[in-house]
Amino acid sequence: MNAGITRRGLLAGTGALIVSFSLTGRGFAQDDQKLPGSLANDAFLDSWIRIDGDGAITVFTGKAELGQGVKTALIQIAAEELEVTPTEITLVTADTGRTPNEGYTAGSQSMPNSGTAIRNAAAQVRALLIGEAARRLNVAPESLHAADKKIGQFGYGALAASLDLHVAAQPDSPLKSSADFKTMGQPFPRVDIPAKVTGGVAYVQDLKPQGMLHARVVRPPSPGAQLASIDSSGVKAMPGVKTVLQDGNFLAVVAEGEFQAIKAMRALSAAVQWNEHPSLPAKSDIPTYLKSLEREVGTVAQEGSVVIAAGQPVFKARFTRPYMMHGSIGPSCAVAVLEGIVLTIWSHTQGVYPDRKAIAEMLAMPLDNIRIIHSQGSGCYGHNGADDAAADAAVIARALPGQPIRVQWMREQEHANEPYGPAMLMEVEAALGADGSISTWNYDVWTNSHSTRPGGAGALLAGRSLAKAFPPEPAELEISPSGNGDRNADPLYTFPNRRILWHFLPDMPVRVSALRSLGAYANVFALESFMDDMALEANADPVAFRLQHLDDQRAKAVIQEAATRFGWDSREKIPGQGHGFAFARYKNHAAYLALAVTVAVDRDTGHVRVLRAVAAIDSGEIVNPDGIRNQTEGGIIQAMSWTLYEQVTFNETRITSIDWASYPILRFASVPDSIEIHIVPRPNEPFLGTGEAAQGPTPAAIRNAIRDATGVKLYDLPFTRERVRGAIGI
Amino acid sequence: MAIKLNVNGSEQSIDSDPETPLLYVLRNDLKLNGAKFGCGLGQCGACTVMVDGKAVLSCVTPVLLMEGRTITTVEGLGTIEQPGPMQQAFIAEQAAQCGYCIPGMMMRAQALLQTNPQADDQAIRQALEFNLCRCGTHMRILRAIHRARDLMQQANAQESGRAG
């Protein structure tokens, strides 16, 4: 910690660095005049919905399909409120040339933001169409209904031709009641799956514009490495090679054929010398290392007294999580072409508008001369290499005007260069009151910012490497309702006294950014693990203990649903097996999820396998129940993989986890026997989002089940065989 | 040097560097998008295709070795208009999230079921051990392959019924 700055000083209000936002007030006042969802950012109805003279309906979203199924759900929503079948809807996703700016497709917010906007816009367009028909027929609008793309004898196209949809949306919309839904709330087959299983053009990797050339980059071998010398003459003479590009520390090869580009990349790697210096943590002792980086403390929540009365039983624990990867199966890719003064980039970025801004700054080009079109990539679980690959393609395309350039990262490049989910240290101290409930909960988390997304060219690897280099923007501590590194650090439980602090680490020797659920994964891991430990201390059943500390009825409902479906009260004790439970309301204001698991622990090998998982989720109004199940199953399995296997490794200079052998993830032999997802329906409630709700409860449920099976409490992620075997003392 | 191979039932002559991995020949020369680049190291299975009925990692298989071989990619299992049993099963089970690993999974499963039409859950899991999925679609992938197996068995039964 910096000299002169102490937590006590900050808490006493003597420092200027306190950033405070109280989450303990629960709920947020709704501003009645605010437009719903992303309509607040772009109020014009025709930004979202257009109806041509022939009746063709096009819906626009600023969100992107990341494999989460959002296209299908948005089509269902638009179809429902427009009273048409989903096949009538053409959906255009994130494209700076065509769609509204909805920032990033992230944070499980596509349904609350874009889903809400499209639903309201569609309902208002329907009302305008009905109004126009009523005017023509000289009848009251209430007497008319939309059906089959018609109102009365008038088709939507004919009615729309008389309407100006370039009008601002109103705060209130004539939304349909859930009871009248035809499409929403029903399982609907994903619109993108047929092409994906038959070899159609489905991904940015599949694009092949006429005259396209293949590019590969050669990245510095370690963070901050500087080019010492290069002799590219041999590479330039290789078959098919069009050019070798060098700009500062940025190196790329361009060739006619893809394998020619790969061979040239390998040759160039061998023809370059770098000056490297050690910049990574000396050893992977996460607690010591993270504490050494602390520069600032933010109060996430404070209520009641921090001081625990003398004589009260006090319990403490310390939890850690390592740096973790997104690890998409397909490494990042982008295609770009400079035609005249206009640069067009196809990218699997999560944010076409923010990425455009960063790339425009990097290339010193006007924003309007750059268009970024989202094109699907392999699964996106946060800020991976997508933006960087787009920047690479932009730099190379600028050097070769008129030639479409496809940049494909290699596996080792993605593993070594993607921004990782940050490491975290969590310390918790809790006191039990005489009534057997928790009276005080003091919690400290040490971590970086969990978002270093483009906003500046310095966030892009290419931007950092060019001769005219852009430095990364300094990270700043910000306490927000959604949370970041502190996401879900504040328990939803009714503890009368609490104090939650984020010890902020602005320096990022290891490049980090957003990984699915940000800090919630590890904060819920610590919170829900310690809740279980406290239940044991209080001699209470873990499920009953949680219910005892909750006022929120929806929270209680998912916990009870998961426990009932799992058969918690009648669970059997089988040697070598254990059962575990965990719960969270994502961000404390989004989806509720409770999870019960059974694990088997092999005492000889330390191998842990989840046998069965039963989850209950409440993500508000349901659009596509199968989509909710698919995302939740996926979230559980991915978090299971993080929890049992995953950690980024490095020496003092280089990242050493650079392929699937050095960064193992879950394989089929360890997949559970069964996973059940039970959805708690909440008709006429707002969309809460789904994609990240399972990330936090999963590690805690597994940890609590291992404790149930072995009596051993684990505190450090991941629960590798070695670690489990070491802990159970064999 | 031209290399002759059969891809999805049609004869092809490939004139490329013989070291070129089959994956790039399929994706670029033949414009088949099904097989995916995942690692280029033979570690993830996204590039899996069938060669003479066996599952092969096309990212580490030089095209030189493909002379005279019969190769099947996911495009060879059916079309979007007329999907084959494996494709029908993956659609019916909605067995994809991002879908990037899925063609590799399907080809691995196709090779298994052609050799072992009765493959049980354990045999299916064992065969898929080579293939990585990051979205966590595993349960659906397993269900889809069970369904594909049943569809293929039904089709075979009907076929032999007609033949008899």
- Secondary structure class of chain B reads alpha+beta
**In total, how many domains does the architecture of chain B comprise?**
1
**What share of the residues of chain A does DSSP label as strand, in percent?**
15-25%
Overall structural domain count of chain A: 3
Total number of helical segments of chain A? 18
Structural class of chain A: alpha+beta
Strand content of chain B: 5-15%
| Overall form of chain A | globular
Rg of chain A (C-alpha, Å): 27 Å
> And the CATH topology of chain B?
Ubiquitin-like (UB roll)
Return residue spans of chain B where pLDDT drops below 50 for at least 5 consecutive residues: none
Mean pLDDT of chain B: 96
Q: Sketch the major β-sheet of chain B.
A: 5 strands, mixed
Topology record:
The complex is a heterodimer of chains A (730) and B (164).
Chain A (H helix, E strand, L loop, with lengths): L6 H5 L37 E3 L5 E4 L9 H13 L6 E4 L17 H28 L8 E2 L2 E2 L2 E2 H6 L31 H4 L16 E6 L7 E5 L2 H4 L4 E7 L2 E6 L2 H13 L1 E4 L10 H7 L3 E8 L10 E8 L11 E7 L2 E6 L4 H12 L6 E5 L11 H14 L5 E4 L2 H7 L6 E9 L5 E10 L13 H5 L31 E8 L15 H18 L4 H7 L4 H14 L10 E9 L6 E10 L6 E11 L6 H21 L28 E6 L17 H14 L10 H7 L3
Parallel strand pairs in A: 2-3, 7-17, 15-16, 19-20, 23-24
Antiparallel strand pairs in A: 1-2, 4-5, 5-6, 7-10, 8-11, 9-10, 12-20, 13-18, 14-15, 14-17, 18-19, 21-22, 22-23
Helix pairs in contact in A: 2-3, 9-10, 13-17
Chain B lengths: L1 E6 L2 E6 L6 H8 L18 E4 L2 E4 L12 E3 L12 H8 L9 H14 L5 H8 L9 H26 L1
Parallel strand pairs in B: 1-5
Antiparallel strand pairs in B: 1-2, 3-4, 3-5
